[in-house]
Amino acid sequence: MTFKCSICNYNAGTKANLNRHYQSKKHIQNSNQCVSGKSCEYCSKFFKHKSNYYRHLKKCTHDPNNTPNNTLHNTPHNIPNNTQNVINYTSYETCSDTYITDSKILRTTLPSDAGKLITNVINIINNSNINSNINSNINSNNNLTQIAKAQHLDKLYGIHNMIDMDSFIINYKNNPSYQLTETESNDVLETYLEIGYKQLGYKLSHYLKDKCRKQVNDKFNCDLQLENTIMPLLTSDQSVRSYFERHTNSWKIVSDISNIKKLIIITSDQVYKHHNKYIKLDANEMKTVANTILKDNQYEKAIESYNRINTLDKPIHEMITQ
Hints:
Strand order of the largest sheet: 5-6-7
Largest sheet: 3 strands, antiparallel
């Protein structure tokens, strides 16, 4: 049980503490300032200022004259039951339909500004649903486009022998024939030290493509040129949210760039082997270099390469298997 001083808005745990409060300077000062104040005859609430007192009288719930039939206030217990049910229990999915069919009832049972509030809420819900559907459709269309491009890569290159990503990484790491030479590793190191990591990705992309070309030529006994070499990684999205990665039997859509990071780390190890210096990259710099490599190996370039070879009346399977 608590004991309250309505003048000071003070709550005491015991009556003795309340009496002690009555003797305090704060209470005496507030009492002197509120001589002209008034108390509500219905709920006994005290008001320091008459303006607050008269404002309270208009909506005091203890005043029998303030009933839902006479004055409708924007409080839950004064809203008719049927309106409470609409507001509290109508689902978001049916809210719009309920508002349209019962708009006349709502306007007569709610305050004048409540209809605008509900209309705004419904508009927000409808707009959110529209935006959600648009985003869902965009994502769905993007996914379908990516799948179609992966299938197109399988159609153009999938039936021909190519180096898959795992084999390319293993060969690049373990086979000296497909590793960076001392001159090449020095070129990579100088690019990193003199120009910076943002240009490093383009330099790595060039040498990685050359190592891929050598692996393809040695494995399939062909004479593939660098400009026609297709890396086992391709991107069709400048934002690099996902990319195509060549697996054993087909192209797959992946979003994890861990395999590209492996290639960067292997390159750093090869630079260290020749020059006793590592290419040190933090997480953000590593991601930037990986994304640059992806952007330098685009799906559109692979299609252009295919068309260029076939324009010369030399189908790509002859380039691979001759």
